[in-house]
Amino acid sequence: MNDSALLRLPAVIALTGYQRSSIYALMKARKFPGSVRLAGGGAVAWRATEVREWIEAQGRATDKAAA
Length: 67
Fold this sequence. Notes:
With about 70 residues, the chain is mainly alpha-helical. It contains three helices and three strands, in the order E-H-H-E-E-H.
């Protein structure tokens, strides 16, 4: 995946396993990367690098809890 790639909501859902409402609730709680507004309208996307880093951080947190 390109480091500058932007992910639309269906891709974020597929990567995280979370539904739309959970993603937005985590964003509101500042526990998930914020979206960026795309030019020309109300569409939003997420930076692929930030989403991947968040996913990796969740794995590290799970590993620490299991130890």
